[in-house]
Design goal:
CATH superfamily: Intergrase catalytic core
Number of domains: 1
Structural class: mainly alpha
Number of strands: 3
Order of helices and strands: HHHHEEEHHHHHH
CATH class: Mainly Alpha
Distance between the termini: 38 Å
Strand content: 5-15%
Shape: globular
CATH architecture: Orthogonal Bundle
CATH topology: hpI Integrase, Chain A
Strand order of the largest sheet: 1-2-3
Number of helices: 10
Low-confidence stretches: none
Mean pLDDT: 88
Largest sheet: 3 strands, antiparallel
Length: 196
């Protein structure tokens, strides 16, 4: 069986541990952002980036019409990288917060939740990080990394994660496996049920 050739450095990149924040750091970041002039928006933006694993451009294009249902649960319908439509899992509480925010701010169905640009997102994270006293350099993709790591820790399913993140290559998704510990593996395997 022939395997497709890997581009130079692809395997090395897949074996590196990705940088990420901890859930506690994200909580502190969101709480600190909530104290800014546009605190409600900025805090919600941070929560969306973390709890959905969306890229910044995907997040900035979200509107109330993006919220749909799949199997009775909320999902976000987005057009991702490569102009491909995909559905993203969205926690129920986050979907409700987005709907409440849209209602309160009178955001129309096709209007964006976050009518700002990418550089403003970077500024929001930098300002919140500095005020919170976080030692790490904080940027939007760190939140995507944490979402991926948390999903992998809880499900142990890299293929599901690949679809969630919209990766065309499994190699990109496999980077997150390096962050799992033996304890994570034990917890994942303890969830396996056998019928007698």
């Amino acid at each position: 069986m022939k395997y497709p050739a890997l581009r130079h450095g692809t395997l090395a990149k897949a074996q590196r541990i990705v940088p990420y924040l901890t859930p506690e750091e994200v909580k502190i970041l969101a709480e600190t952002a909530a104290q800014s002039r546009n605190g409600e928006r900025d805090s919600l933006l941070i929560r969306v980036l973390f709890q959905t694993g969306l890229r910044v451009s995907e997040t900035l294009n979200l509107s109330p019409s993006s919220i749909e249902k799949f199997d009775g649960k909320p999902v976000l319908s987005i057009v991702g990288k490569g102009k491909k439509r995909r559905l993203i899992s969205c926690p129920e509480r986050l979907a409700e917060k987005l709907k409440a925010f849209a209602f309160e701010k009178k955001i129309g169905q096709e209007e964006r939740f976050f009518p700002i640009n990418r550089s403003r997102v970077w500024q929001i994270l930098k300002e919140a990080s500095n005020k919170a006293g976080l030692a790490k350099r904080v940027y939007p993709h760190l939140l995507r990394h944490l979402d991926a790591i948390e999903r992998l820790r809880q499900t142990g399913n890299p293929k599901s994660l690949q679809f969630h993140l919209g990766h065309s290559s499994m190699v990109m998704t496999m980077r997150y496996l390096n962050t799992l510990t033996q304890e994570d593996a034990i917890k994942i395997n303890q969830e396996v049920v056998f019928n007698d």
